[in-house]
Task: structure prediction
Amino acid sequence: MPRRRASISAVEVAPEIGKGAENRCALCERDVQHLSRHHLVPREEGGRHGPTADLCQPCHSSIHLLLDNKELARHYHTIEALRGAEKLQKYLHWIRRSRVERISNRRSKG
Result:
């Protein structure tokens, strides 16, 4: 009797698809190893129990470097608004083409 070739079932493929989606940055949409939780409305501005987004470390640091908490609370409290932020466009263009997983802490503006 001839051997049948094993076929890949949906069950075998699904975990790989799910795994990548779990580690995808909500802002730059890259697959990364580690994510951090970003409060869409900063905790200091009343967003302690509000919605959050999982971001890669470079995106999270860059958001807080380029935008202050009042701007984030008033104008950029959704992922769509953050993606459209003029101050983030140059960064987003760079990071989407990059394989960087971590950047140094750049939160100090001084």
